[in-house]
Structure formats: C-alpha cells, structure tokens
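Colleagues,

For the teaching module next term, I've prepared a clean inverse folding example: a structure given as tokens, and then the sequence designed for it. I'd like students to try predicting residues themselves before seeing the answer, so please don't circulate the second half yet.
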C-alpha cells in the first residue's frame, strides 16, 4: 500500500505575540520541516521502492505473491541478441535463472484483495535476492513485475493466470519512485499445440502421439481423506501401435515419473518420442503411464508423507489397480516397471524399495540423493553440519557446468525464500521428508539464515527416507523381492553433484552382496544422460528393451536400428 505522510501543524491560542517569539517559532518550524525532509531522504537512501499498479490485467480484486525482477540492461540485451542469432536485442521478459543465480535481482511481497487500479509499494530492500536493491551498481536496468496468483512460481515459474507488466528500462539509482503496471494475464496453452516456430516433424509427432494418449484423472480415496477434499491423480496413458481394448493381447507397463518442474502439461516431449520410437520399432510395444508428481508443495515423489499424504499407497493400491482394470496391462510384477529422472529418479528408487513386490525393476536416471551422507555433496549426518559452508568456510556448490560452479546451496535456498514459501526444490524435499510441525508445515531441515542443519530433523529423514539406510536395515526381508531390480544411470559430471550419492548407494548394495546395475556415464551432465551419439533418447530405448526382455524372455522381437 502507499504510505504518504500529511503535514500538520498547531496554532497557538492567545494574545498577540511579540516579534521575537514569532521569529523563534518560525525558526523552529523551519528546523522541524528540514528534519522531516532529511528523514525522508535518509529513508529513500536506506530503502528503494517501486510502485506497482493493477491495471488491465485484471477486472476483479486479486491476491498472490508480487515479484519484481531486474537485470542489467546490457546483460539482457546481449542475451536476447545471442538467442535470436543476432537478429534482435529486444528484451520482452525478465526472469530468474537458477543456473545464473545472481544475474537477476528479485524482490517480493504478498498482496491480498488487490483492487483494479490500486497501486501498491514494493520495498526492494526488505525481501530481496541476491541483495538489497539499494546496493545495485549504478546503471540502466530492465525491470518487470509479475503477480504469481496461485503461488506456483517456485515450482513451474510464471504460468497461466499470472499477471505481468511490460518490461521497463530504469536507471538506478533514481530520485523518483518508478511505477510498473500489470497489463496482461498470461493465457493458458494447449500442451499438444506446439509453437508456430516448431518444425514440421515435431508437429507430426505430437499429432500422432495425441491419438494414442489418454488423460488420467483419478480421485484418490486415501489422499482425499488425508486432505479433506477431492485430490486428483493425473497422468497420461500411452498405448502401443496395434493396441485394441477388446483384444486378448496384453502388454508390459512402464510407469514414468518426471523431474522437478514437470507436470501433466510438460510431458508431451518424452511421450511423443516414445510413441514415435514404438511406431518405428526402435522400442518394443509396451504401455507407458506418464505420471504427474507435481503438487502445490513441489514434487510429492509418490512417497507416503505426513505432510503431502499417502501418495505411494494411492499409486500402488488405488491408481494402478484402476488402470489395470481399464487397459490390457500385465497385472504382475514381471510386467510392471519404473523409469524416472532426477526427482522422478528418486521416486522410482523409493517406490521399488518401498513396494518391491509390486514392481519388476526400476531404471532410475540421475536420481536425487539416495544416501544422505552425500546430499549434493554435503554429509547431513556430520557433527555440526551446515549446508551453506564447509568446515573451512568455503561455500558448498549446488550447480555446476563440469568444473565451473554456477550456483551455491546458499544462493538456491535464499532465492527460493524470496520467490515463495511453497514449491521450491529445497522446500519440496522438506514437504516430502520432514516431520510435521506444530504450525502444520514441515519442520525445516536447515536454518535459511545460517545454513545450520537440525540433527533431529535429519534423524527423521534417515529413518523414513534415506534409501541406503533402509536397505541396510531391512535387506534380509527385502532381498527376495528386490535383489537385481535396481538399475541406476548417472553422469560423472552431473549438474547437481548427484553422482556422489549414487556411488554411496552402490557401495551399500555391494556391501550387502546385492545384485544391482550402476552406470556412471563419463562426462555426462544432468541434462544429457540419455544421449547416445546423436540420439538424445538412445538410453531410453536401451532401457525399454531391457524391461521387455524381463517381461517377455522368450520373445524374438529385436530393435530396429536407429537411422
């Protein structure tokens, strides 16, 4: 809200004053006004404000998290020029980028019942990343305001329904208070419709896949009971070429889970690639279920959690039986498989180890930490553990491009805190792993100001979600149904340092005498682990044939060579 002071003064009652008293009074008044002016100047120096007006973007009162983004004009123009191959330097969007964490400055505040035409102030020093905006070097900046109406920015970024301003060029510092106006509501997009610039091959692949894909929209009884309202489980079922609902032929089934930031509208790429590969004979005929593990708190990862609810139970006891009653699926462990990447890779590892009788194997790629002795390079069990700083005071990295550090754990955590209290990657871990606090929210694993780890919370994490620990504690009872079912792939240059935890999980399994399959792919990162030569989906094709060999050991079907 705007806070503007109003001058007031007092008139003295009495008889006619003499000249001296009047002069003194005048001097005192002038001194007071000068003091007020100086105070306002000092405040302006201490804090930098922007005005944001709710303009034509909304005709109704609204609420949400108001975000303000700023980037050096020269930096933004150079990036726009590079992305357009030198054809344009127009900057039409300013946004945060976790891979260049400190490049964009962000400020935030919550707004409630914001009326059209109303103007609010945002203090860009009060809640800001990477630092207060008053500390920004002098120069020209591109600035944009975004109202995150459903508090989903921390998970998927800006999306349908969010309100945005035009990008405005501002010189900082400025003696005036700049104003931005929210003028546009971002439209919903049909996930099956590619952009106008998409190549013809992509358009054809999406159109073909759409004919073989069916939306999953299942209301879970157990999740609905947990939350006290209907909770939907979403996904897509992709059937293979020649599938006929009334035919006798049954098919092995793959349950595919996405990484952090994925949802039901962002799976069309891998879904269409699988469809095209099966049509060409590059992958065997199987039913693929692309599961949506997104939630308002981030990824629930199909883990049974005191915060998110019984997602693992809902999948294995409710959704899978429902799907197997609808589709011609193999209804046994030898025909049910798991594949997932990143957070989805952790989910498939968890599901396989938690429900070993249900699934015939997991092929997990670049999974989130499965042994908390190496949580992206940090030993959470170490005495006086801190996720920001090593004992020598150096910062723990979190994002890299091979040998170059792109961001630290502290930067990620503090950026998330500004962007919102729900849905961030680190907060998502707590919603899955942490005990429930008295306030109804998960207990933080670490202090956001200092990075200090809470050993009591980590102990809870260990007992409930450390996969390596679970294997060590329960291997004799798990072995008959789990031995030989864990297959893991990770790059030695993983962007988030996830190869370290994979090595520790392998060491645990090797120490137990377990049969498992681990592949540490030389120089592969988080994003190219599936690449084989020029085929960006080559590993997925190999994985599909390994699954099929288990489900159909007597089959003579062989893959068609990839062109």
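(Answer key — instructors only)
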């Amino acid at each position: 809200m705007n806070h503007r002071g109003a001058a007031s003064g007092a008139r003295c009652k009495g008889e006619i004053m003499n000249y001296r008293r009047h002069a003194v009074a005048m001097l005192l008044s002038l001194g007071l006004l000068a003091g007020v002016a100086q105070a306002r100047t000092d405040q302006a120096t201490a804090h930098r404000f922007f005005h944001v007006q709710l303009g034509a973007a909304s005709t109704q009162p609204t609420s949400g998290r108001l975000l303000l983004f700023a980037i050096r004009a020269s930096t933004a123009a150079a990036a726009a020029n590079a992305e357009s191959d030198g054809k344009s330097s127009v900057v039409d969007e300013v946004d945060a980028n976790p891979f260049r964490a400190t490049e964009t400055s962000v400020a935030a505040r919550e707004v409630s019942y914001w009326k059209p035409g109303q103007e609010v102030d945002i203090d860009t020093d009060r809640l800001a990343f990477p630092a207060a905006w008053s500390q920004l070097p002098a120069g020209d900046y591109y600035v944009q305001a975004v109202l995150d109406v459903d508090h989903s920015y921390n998970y998927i970024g800006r999306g349908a329904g969010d309100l945005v301003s035009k990008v405005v060029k501002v010189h900082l510092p400025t003696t005036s208070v700049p104003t931005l106006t929210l003028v546009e509501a971002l439209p919903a997009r049909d996930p099956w419709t590619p952009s106008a610039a998409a190549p013809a091959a992509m358009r054809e692949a999406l159109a073909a896949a759409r004919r073989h894909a069916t939306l999953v929209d299942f209301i879970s009884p157990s999740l609905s009971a947990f939350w006290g309202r209907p909770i939907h489980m979403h996904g897509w079922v992709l059937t293979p070429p020649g599938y006929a609902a009334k035919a006798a032929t049954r098919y092995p089934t793959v349950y595919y889970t996405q990484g952090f930031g994925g949802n039901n509208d962002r799976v069309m790429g891998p879904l269409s690639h699988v469809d095209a590969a099966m049509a060409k004979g590059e992958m065997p005929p199987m039913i693929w279920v692309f599961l949506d593990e997104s939630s308002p708190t981030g990824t629930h990862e199909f883990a049974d959690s005191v915060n998110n609810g019984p997602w693992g139970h809902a999948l294995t006891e409710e959704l899978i039986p429902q799907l197997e009653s609808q589709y011609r699926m193999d209804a046994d462990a030898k025909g049910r498989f798991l594949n997932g990447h990143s957070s989805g890779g952790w989910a498939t590892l968890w599901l396989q180890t938690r429900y070993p009788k249900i699934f015939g194997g997991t092929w997990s790629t670049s999974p989130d930490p499965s042994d908390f002795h190496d949580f992206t390079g940090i030993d959470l069990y170490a005495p006086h553990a801190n996720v920001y700083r090593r004992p020598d005071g150096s910062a723990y990295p979190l994002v890299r491009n091979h040998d170059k550090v792109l961001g630290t754990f502290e930067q990620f955590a503090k950026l998330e805190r500004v962007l919102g209290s729900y849905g961030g990657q680190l907060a998502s871990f707590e919603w899955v792993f942490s005990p429930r606090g008295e306030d109804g929210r998960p207990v933080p694993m670490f202090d956001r100001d200092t990075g200090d780890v809470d050993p009591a919370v980590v102990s809870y994490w260990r007992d409930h979600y450390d996969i390596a620990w679970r294997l060590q504690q329960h291997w004799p009872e798990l072995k008959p149904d789990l031995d030989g079912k864990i297959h893991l792939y990770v790059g030695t240059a993983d962007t988030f340092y996830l190869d370290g935890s994979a090595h520790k999980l392998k060491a645990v399994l090797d120490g137990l005498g377990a049969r498992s399959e681990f592949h540490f792919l030389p120089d592969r990162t988080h994003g190219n682990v599936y690449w084989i030569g020029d085929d960006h989906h080559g590993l997925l094709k190999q994985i599909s044939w390994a699954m099929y060999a288990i489900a159909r050991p007597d089959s003579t079907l062989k893959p068609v060579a990839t062109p």
